[in-house]
Amino acid sequence: MVNKGQSLARQCFQREVEQPDEQIHLERAALYLAQEDYPELDVEAYVKALDALAAAVKERSPQSSYPLKIIQAINHYLYDELGFVGNTADYYDPRNSFLNEVIDRRTGIPITLSLVYLAIAQRVGLPMVGINMPGHFLIRPVIDEAEICVDAFHQGEILFPQDCEERLAQVYGHPVELKPAFLQAVSKRQYLARMLTNLKVTYSNQGKLEQTLAAIDRLLLLFPDTPLELRDRGIVYYHLDRATEAQHDLESYLTLVPTAIDAPVIQRLLKTIKKGVV
Q1: Which domain holds residue 239?
Q2: 150 strand-pairing partners
């Protein structure tokens, strides 16, 4: 149920993600996510911008619907003509996580550039899905015989499984075994959660508590009662001097995972909170 006290953007996001996963409009949900930071954002205008990008790719595509040909057409238009690029200079800039900024600035991080790519591919008849590879988000065509992934952050580079393993080694600085789970498709909720987790980490590292709280709140709309998010929200509430809410979330965390490795630390924090609550 939508809380009437929420911002319009939050209400729209909540309505979108309360639908069955297959009915969630991923780009709109991502734009509602951005709208909290950009209240004047025109969601429909950006959906139309994605429509226009796809129309331009269609004009440049060969008659053949062969997946690799479509991927080549998308790559040529996005990266060669328009100059979309992965933001290596300022990877943790929050703007990299907002779809409107990625479209406007033509720069982003793997998950948001992938979202632009997915939106175009879907519109030109090549359904693709996000891939839950740790440390570096990828996409792949929804084709039974296809064992390729596309790296939207690196100019739409096509990767085979061995290439994915090498990319993992680059991310972590040492060899990492490519497990089947690393190439599993993500649901739309999981996709949005990964975007929000990026924002949460970025804002937390910058000490922006209100923005960190907003990211966690939306993560809990996607996946209610997630223990680690309840714990983290409780800690943020504590630092915002919202003791009652902090106590509620931290007690909920311990109820859900009473044997958590950090349970003694959380119990001590709760004692501190209760001493100050009148």
Answers
A1: 225-278
A2: 139, 158
